[in-house]
Write a structure and sequence with these properties.
The protein has 286 residues and is α/β, with parallel strands linked by helices. It has one domain: Histone deacetylase domain (Arginase, Chain A, 3-Layer(aba) Sandwich). The protein is built from 9 helices and 7 strands; from the N terminus they run E-H-E-H-H-H-E-H-E-H-E-H-E-H-E-H. The longest helix has 24 residues. The chain starts with a strand and ends with a helix.
Length: 286
């Protein structure tokens, strides 16, 4: 059964920000429960400061968690600080579980790829994508792929990879692909080839941002149909090849007339559906 690594401790209801990501874990999990597709909510432990310091400077980690340094939302909220180790723990343990069991898992987390070694920004505080890759490498994954399809370039991810010389990570970022200038149809045509280039990885980390949708106020490329195609194109081939995968949420900023995020939740539903069927396929192959 598909595992979703979720705890109420990773969701913050009150965070003054244009980005809804702090409160999104609870909302997206509740939306998935309504789909009628059975899944398992998996408990986990939060990441330690020592683990966070594998990807960030000691001063930055201690500063954020000690409420002396602004987080990626540009505030010093104690609620956000308390949630951050749980957010990272969700991603790390989902990754290790996927690698161990050669399966697909979901971590309903956002706010990683703009986080650099010594700073946060762009609604990102700690780079749990790189942290999860490091922990998987320590667990035996010789090569880890990060496929980041959030609309914006994963500058923080690449900066940490370069700074720490993490040559076991293969990184692709949608926001840095010049093919987007040729239009979304051309990019969708190229996506199977992009996915295939990761076939030599022992684990895939898929950052499935939905701000890539054409109506997103901070993004805008892919139609709704293309978003659904995207998640299937990325997820299904790795399941067929039994390459472990963990999926995270990343960005999405569309608002309803009442201020809700139902459109964002619907788009994340495409990823959940693709992952659910991939897990089912995975279990049948076993």
């Amino acid at each position: 059964m598909l595992k979703v690594f979720y705890s109420k401790n990773q969701s913050v209801k009150n965070n003054s920000s244009f980005s809804p990501s702090a409160g999104k874990p609870e909302l997206v999990v509740e939306s998935w429960k309504k789909r009628g597709q059975e899944f398992h909510i998996q408990e986990f432990t939060p990441s330690s400061r020592e683990d966070l310091k594998l990807v960030h400077s000691s001063d930055y980690v201690d500063g954020v968690l000690g409420l002396k340094t602004s987080n990626g939302f540009g505030n010093k909220s104690p609620e956000v600080a308390a949630a951050l180790p749980w957010i990272c723990g969700s991603m790390v343990e989902a990754t290790l579980d996927a690698f161990k069991n050669k399966s697909i898992t979901i971590s309903p987390t956002s706010g990683a790829h703009h986080a650099r070694y010594s700073s946060g920004g762009g609604y990102c505080t700690f780079n749990f994508l790189v942290l999860a890759a490091i922990k998987a490498h320590q667990a035996g994954a010789k090569k880890v792929g990060i496929i980041d399809l959030d609309c914006h370039y994963g500058d923080g991810t690449q900066e940490i990879i370069n700074r720490l010389k993490l040559d076991f990570i293969q990184h692709y970022s949608f926001g840095g692909d010049p093919r987007l200038l040729q239009g979304s149809a051309k990019w969708i045509e190229a996506l199977p080839g992009i996915v295939e280039s990761f076939n030599n990885c022992d684990l895939i980390i898929y950052n499935a941002g939905v701000d890539s949708h054409i109506d997103d106020p901070l993004g805008g490329y892919l139609t709704t149909e293309q978003m659904e195609m995207r998640d299937s194109i990325v997820i299904k081939p790795f399941a067929q090849k039994k390459i472990p995968m963990v999926v995270s949420l990343a960005g999405g900023y569309q608002k309803d007339e009442d201020g809700g995020i139902s459109k964002v939740l619907d788009l994340h539903g495409f990823m959940f559906n693709a992952a659910w069927f991939a897990d089912k396929l995975n279990q049948e192959v076993k």
